[in-house]
């Protein structure tokens, strides 16, 4: 990655707040750690593009991942400069695109485009990823209120990103894979949420071939995964899961 990155002070991802807890007939004063949520604005070449509510951490990954899954860039080097700027109302991710990509983006500036194989993955690999993910979700362990998106590739360390938004978590994961040069086609994407069409589309954008979610997918997500050749696994639990599309990639 050749982009110049500058970061300014950003708020913490969690905060402790006072609360009164009730259990049966007893009450207790104390504190609870909550996930922070702030507006994050994406700006390209000085022009505002989108504002999302997100957790204020892994923001560089968020910038690259969102920009890639939205089709604004095709490779990390097309972002020439990135500044993470904390402002009174939230955070601004200011990006400047390289010359050629800047021209392409300028042509589509008036419209916002929404979020439009690894061979065989064994049952043990899926089960292992599903077990490892909760243990690695440090932010969720503190708050019990954020989603996780993880990439599991045999023989390599699990890559995981978290956010209050499930789409944001996947975008951050996409950015992390771009930074490290890992191919999403060589492993599986594991999500702590249900699988909606947007998540299927984002997974397809980064070249994933297998996506796993702990809840049931939507019917449209299944049709979309089928059409783009993505293996979709849902209702993943410690004791099993259900394969909805392209089951040929799953073996015993």
Give a quick summary of the entry.
With 252 residues, this protein is of the alpha/beta class. Helix content is 29%, strand content 36%. Helix 1 crosses helix 5 (166-180) and helix 5 (166-180) packs parallel to helix 6.
Overview of the molecule:
The chain has 252 residues and is of the alpha/beta class. It has a domain at 121-251: 3-Layer(aba) Sandwich (Cytidine Deaminase, domain 2). It is 29% helix and 36% strand. It contains seven helices and 15 strands. The chain has helices at 59-69, 99-107, 123-136, 138-143, 166-180, 197-205, 219-228; strands spanning 4-7, 14-23, 26-35, 38-44, 47-54, 79-87, 90-97, 121-122, 147-152, 159-163, 188-191, 210-213, 231-237, 240-243, 250-251. A six-stranded mixed sheet has the order 10-9-11-12-13-14, with helices on both faces. A hairpin with a 2-residue loop joins β4 (38-44) and β5 (47-54). α1 crosses α5, α5 packs parallel to α6 and α6 packs parallel to α7. The longest helix has 15 residues, at 166-180. The radius of gyration is 19 Å and the shape is flat. Mean pLDDT is 85; it is low at 112-119.
């Amino acid at each position: 990655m050749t982009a110049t990155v500058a970061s300014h002070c950003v708020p913490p991802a969690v905060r402790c707040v006072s609360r009164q807890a009730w259990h049966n007939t007893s009450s207790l004063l104390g504190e609870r750690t909550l996930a922070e949520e702030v507006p994050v604005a994406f700006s390209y070449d000085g022009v505002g593009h989108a504002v999302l509510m997100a957790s204020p951490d892994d923001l560089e990954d968020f910038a690259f991942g969102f920009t890639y899954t939205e089709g604004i860039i095709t490779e990390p080097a097309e972002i020439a400069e990135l500044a993470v700027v904390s402002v009174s109302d939230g955070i601004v991710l200011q990006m400047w695109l390289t010359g050629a990509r800047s021209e392409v983006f300028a042509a589509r500036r008036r419209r916002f485009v929404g979020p439009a194989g690894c061979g065989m993955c064994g049952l043990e690999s899926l089960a292992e990823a599903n077990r490892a993910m909760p243990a690695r979700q440090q932010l969720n362990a503190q708050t019990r209120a954020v989603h996780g998106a993880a990439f599991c590739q045999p023989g390599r360390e699990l890559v995981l990103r978290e956010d209050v938004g499930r789409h944001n978590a996947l975008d951050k994961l996409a950015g992390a894979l771009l930074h490290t040069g890992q191919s999403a086609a060589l492993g599986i994407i594991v999500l702590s949420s249900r699988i909606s069409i947007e998540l299927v589309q984002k997974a397809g954008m980064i070249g994933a071939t297998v996506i796993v979610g702990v809840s049931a997918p939507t019917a449209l997500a299944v049709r979309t995964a089928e059409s783009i050749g993505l293996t979709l696994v849902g209702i993943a639990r410690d004791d099993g899961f259900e394969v909805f599309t392209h089951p040929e990639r799953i073996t015993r």
